[in-house]
Amino acid sequence: MKQDQRVNFMNAITQTGAAVSIARLSKAYRTREDDEVLALDQIDLDFEPGSFVAVVGPSGCGKSTLLSLLAGLIGVTEGTISIDGEAISKPHPKIGVVFQSDLLLYWRTVLDNILLPIEIKKLDVSRYRLRAEELLTQVGLDGFGNKYPSELSGGMRQRVAICRAFIQEPGLLLMDEPFGALDALTREQMIMDLQSMWLRVRNTVLFITHGIDEAVFLADRVLVMSPRPGRIDLDLKIEMPRPRQWNSAHEDKAYHGYVRQIRDIFEAKGILVAH
Amino acid sequence: MASTDVVRAGRATGNQGKVMAKKKSREPWLERYSALLLTAAVIVAWQIFVPLAGLSKFVLPTPLEIAGRMVTEWRLLLQNSYVTLFEVVSGFVVSVLIGVPLALSIFYSRPFERAIYPILVAFQTIPKVALAPLLVLYLGYGWAPKITLAFLISFFPIVISTVVGLQSLDKNLVSLVRSMGANEWQTFFKVRLPAALPSIFGGFKVAISLAVIGAVIGEYVAAERGLGYLQLQANSLFDTTLNFATVVTISIMGVLLYFVVDFVERKVAYKRDAAK
Ligand SMILES: Nc1ncnc2c1ncn2[C@@H]1O[C@H](COP(=O)(O)OP(=O)(O)OP(=O)(O)O)[C@@H](O)[C@H]1O
Ligand SMILES: [Mg+2]
Asked: A230 pLDDT band (50/70/90 cuts)?
């Protein structure tokens, strides 16, 4: 309904998702006492271009580590990561990131926050202004471009952060628990918004979350990670038609089957304990 | 209040600008003018108290006498103010020019931080006033020792507040702009510096007030011009009213300089809670 109207506002942007290939990826952190903490252990993964991949796993299993590695923010200990066949060692221009907190710059207006990556990439800012406003419209924030972040609620700010990632037209979008700090109602709305934004551009998404329900609802594929050192315990293909509607998806037998399967893994590993 | 309005407006359009502007002017006037009112009350009490207590104007002149003297002696006060103002501003500018780059070096270089911080702190424990006679010895009677003293007394808060401002940045913001491909130059100008500005200006405000003290103390020790010098002259002539008039002039200068810094801050830095 409202959702679809918003989608129509946007011009079609043709953009292909990036192919991601991760081979024997390990990451060990050196701690203060010169110990090593193995956060990721020999991970092999391939993301199909344009797929929506969700990662769930217990706290501290290395999800954020995986994201930082893909974002080129930290170096690998072993193994390789490549985006469209290019090995990455530093931040790749095809990658956009949304963090758990919105990380908006409070001295910039909403519009200027969205245009920050354009400035940093030394692109012509004036050419992206219209696109920024379109994105704002898409997340229901039309007219908020000249406001400052302090004038916005938490959910609105996170929407702006998502616009800031999308304006980079990232072939690979990395999201680290983007809805973790939001109330249930706002979260639901944003899950729907994210789905429709993603359906427009069909880029590759790595979506890290603690919410099994949002992982299954959004993703084409859910990866379940083991406790540290992180490995992939389950690689689950989610086959439900899109666009997925909130109510019908939650009434779908298949949906509950997927959730059950993930919960079973957590229970088997003792991450979720049944009483 | 205004921000909850925005929240409630939710997904509608955001034309709340006017509402906010109205809210601002509705700030209670008592709160707004409280500092002025208190000052006025103290001045009135002073004016009434002095004749009641039978104090001579050699001991404590009344505010009206001081004000009158400031009017008759405005030329003298102004001429000496120029001298002191020049020393204060020069000292402050030197502090900024040395303090900020020093802070940047401390921020970017661990070894440098290790080497310089203990020395800075040790230096800060020296009462700068005690250096004034030495500075006169080395630099003579002109403006040089005053500027140096104003600099020495005011540069420490600039260094500290700049370092603290840069260090207190949310590391995730750096990750964010790095992920967009920013180099350190861009990271500094897009994120580090703007985020540190409120703290840096906090240091500037302390520093400008201290620079006034430094310059005046420099003039106490040895000078032929300046407000500190004028005060000493008044003292030796038992002209308490002129003495007070000079003190008032010095504090007016301090307040004005503070507001100049504040004005510049408003021009270049957006306050985090400006909208609230
Ligand atoms: N900079 C670091 N130095 C040392 N150890 C680290 C560092 N960052 C993370 N770790 C360790 O690596 C492991 C994985 O951390 P990571 O942040 O990737 O977990 P996570 O899965 O994102 O957890 P959460 O769900 O709580 O966000 C943790 O055990 C953590 O203690
Ligand atoms: Mg994490």
From this structure: confident
Which of B7, B176, B270 minimises the CB distance to A99? B176
Contact A254, A240 (CB under 8 A): yes
What's the CATH number of domain B63-275, 3.10.129.10, 1.10.275.10, 1.10.3720.10, 2.10.260.10? 1.10.3720.10
The verdict on a CB contact (< 8 Å) between A117 and B191 is: no
- Domains parsed from chain A with CATH numbers: 3-100+172-268 (3.40.50.300)
Q: Within an 8 Å CB–CB cutoff, is residue B8 touching chain A?
A: no
* Closest to A219 (Cα-Cα) out of A234, A227, A230, A208: A208
Tell me the mean pLDDT in the region B190-197.
Answer: 96
Confidence class of residue B222 from pLDDT cuts 50, 70 and 90?
A: confident
Task: Count contacts between A and B (CB, < 8 Å).
Answer: 86
Q: Where are the domains of chain B?
A: 1-54, 63-275
Cβ-proximal residues to B164 (8 Å cutoff; 6+ apart), any chain: B199
Q: What's the predicted TM-score (pTM) here?
A: 0.85
Rounded distance between C-alpha atoms, residue A106 and residue A90, angstroms? 27
Interface of A with B (CB under 8 A): 68, 71-73, 91, 93, 95-97, 99, 101, 103, 105-108, 116-117, 119-121, 140-144, 146-148, 150-153, 156, 168
Nearest in space to B226 (alpha carbons), one of B47, B77, B72, B33: B77
Name which of B3, B11, B17 is nearest A140 (Cβ-Cβ).
Answer: B11
Q: pLDDT digit string (tens) for A79-117?
A: 999 999 889 889 999 999 999 999 999 999 999 999 999
CA A142 centroid distance within chain: 23
* Interface predicted TM-score (ipTM) of this complex, two decimals: 0.87
Specify the residue for token string 């990455």: A88
